Structures are given as structure tokens and as C-alpha cells.
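Figure caption, in words: inputs first, then the predicted bound structure.
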Amino acid sequence: MRIGIIGAGRIGAFHAATLAVHDDVASLVVADADPVRARKVAVAHGAAATSVDALFRSRPDAVVIASATAAHPGLVAKAARLGIPAFCETPPALDLAAAVAALAAVAGAGGLLQVGFQRRFDEGYGAARRVLREGGAGRLHTVRMVGSDPAPPPPASVPLSGGLYRDCLIHDFDALRWVTGEEIAEVHALGANVGSAVLLDAGDADTAAAVLTLDSGVLATATATRYHAAGYDVRMELAGTQDQFAVGLGSRTPLTPLEAEAQPRRAPWPGSLDRFAAAYRAELAAFLRVVQGAQPNPCEGREGLRAMLVAEACEISLRERRPVRVDEVALTAGVREVLA
Ligand SMILES: NC(=O)c1ccc[n+]([C@@H]2O[C@H](COP(=O)([O-])OP(=O)(O)OC[C@H]3O[C@@H](n4cnc5c(N)ncnc54)[C@H](O)[C@@H]3O)[C@@H](O)[C@H]2O)c1
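Bound structure (nicotinamide-adenine-dinucleotide present):
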């Protein structure tokens, strides 16, 4: 297959490396709003570089959209209109209306869209989902999630990220839905600023804590921070009446036990590209199989929208200092039609 990559930044370069050595990829073409970036990634992986328009005109067999978030909905809609299957990085858009418009375009064209929630392909999250389905925890009552980035994004990227809830915690919301098989009914979200004024000035919290109530009444907490120099730390703990399980707790977890029996530790994870390297590769391998009709889509567009609704509810909760039902956000025009 001939695959196009749109967006040759940090994650676009990583995806290019994955696709360049995949047996089902005969050739790769890379485009970016910045032609210098496109060329650099193309040269590194034996690919061709072109403009975004020329890439679409050349009608590749599929595209991987890894541009800045604001461009996702337009690129997703364009791929759908041209009948080109698309994989799109998260989050699907900066705002709900744009996400809805893009998904409506995909639905209208009968297009194929896979969303990049790579934790669905991580060994630990997969095991957590299985253990719950097999009843291993007994009756689940509490889920605790942690998401810590070593440092904030570069100042220029801060206004482009969509904020901590849409940019980072959206992965926790998807993982929570996917692992438990439940919807998130209500959120109560808080935010704080402990670091650079750049985030505060952009109206973004750099540290967050939310309590999420699932449909069955299970309680979940999610915390996140952009200031965790100890390393990249993404974890999920599942506590039930019979047992308790942890995802992301290992020798590379940047968490120092203070008791004498503590295990020796290895170098902490520096970032998501290392921690989730295998999962990023697996999600693209799955996408190539989906494009060839060899497996069902493991993460359709509506999964991105559902997680985004939770992030939007958190933003409202943070702003208005109150618990927010996710249903309240789902009243936004077009959401129910896209989810139907
Ligand atoms: N799934 C994950 O864990 C994960 C990890 C990292 C990034 N991401 C997402 O991937 C996307 C890219 O993140 P990044 O860290 O690589 O950012 P980045 O800033 O390193 O790269 C973004 C690239 O997009 C290009 N770009 C911007 N607008 C464009 C347009 N209209 N057409 C083509 N190219 C355009 C920029 O020139 C830049 O090269 C973001 O949406 C981010 O949220 C997801």
C-alpha cells in the first residue's frame, strides 16, 4: 500500500518510522505545513515529501493524520470526502463542534476513521480489561488514574494543545471506558497552576484532579500534571471487592518507594513515545489491517467523540466549579446523531 503521513512533528516522525519498515507498506509520502519538516522526515525514512494538497491529489491508499490538533477535523473530513481511509491522532479536534462536523463528514461519506487511542494496544491496559471481564477483581468499586508529564509543552504549542483535559486526560477517559466497558456519567473537575505563567495565561491548568462517576456508580479519580521531572508516569489502578490490579507500575515507573524493601529501579520513562512505543506500532499495524478489510476497526471516530465529551464536561466543571453530567454536553448540536 502507499500511505500518506500528514504532520511531520514528534509523533508524525515516530509513525513514519513504524510505517517505513512495515511489510504491507510499499511506499510512504510525507506532507507538513512546513515543507522543511516534511523533507527531513521523508529523507530519514526513504519516503517522498510533498504538500498536503498534492498528497491528497495523489490518492494514497490511506492517510495517517499527525498534524497539530486544530487541523485534524479538516483533514479527516477531506480524506472522507475523497474516500481515503484515515487514522487520526488524538484529540479529534480542539472543540466539540469541529469534531462533530468531521465525524458527520465521515458518516456521510461512509468513510473509515480510526482514532489514535494507543492505550487500547498496551499490554497492561489489555490485561486490565480482561481481568475485569473475567471477574478477577470481584465487584469493581474504585479506579485511580495518574498521568504525569515531565515538562509542559513548548510555549508556542500551549495554545494549540486544547488544554490539559482535552490533550492529556482524554487518554485516561478513553482507557477508563475501554477497560471497564462503562460510560462516564458525571465529572467533577478541578485545576491548579504550580508552574510557568504561560499555561495560566493561556487559561490552562498545569495540574488537574477529577472525580468521575461511571454509569454503575463505580468511582474513578484522574490526576494529571505537566510538572513531573521525575519522569513520565501513566498508571491505572483497579480496586474491587476481591482484588486490586495496577497498570503502569514497574521498574521504570518514576515513583520512589520509601521503605527498606523497595525494589531496585531502572531509568524512568522519559515520555509517551518510549512508554507506549509498542502500542503506537500496534495501533498502526491494526489500522493497516482495517484498511485491507482484515479486521474490524478497533477505535472508531465515535470513540474519540465520547472521550471528548468527558473532557468538555471537565472543562465546564472546572470553569463553573460544579459537577457536570456528561449528558449535558451531549446535548450539543449534532452529537447524538453522530453517536447513533
Ligand atoms: N496519542 C498520543 O499519545 C499522542 C502523542 C503525541 C502527540 N499526539 C497528538 O499528535 C498531534 C501532533 O503532535 P506532535 O507532538 O507531533 O506535535 P508537533 O508540534 O511536534 O508536530 C505537529 C506538526 O503538524 C504540522 N502541521 C500543523 N498544521 C498542519 C496542517 N494544517 N497540515 C499539515 N501539517 C500541519 C506542524 O508543522 C508540525 O510539524 C497532536 O494532535 C497531538 O495531540 C498524540
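The pocket of nicotinamide-adenine-dinucleotide is lined by residues 6-12, 32-34, 37, 52, 66-69, 71, 89-90, 116, 118, 157, 167, 272 (CB under 6 Å).
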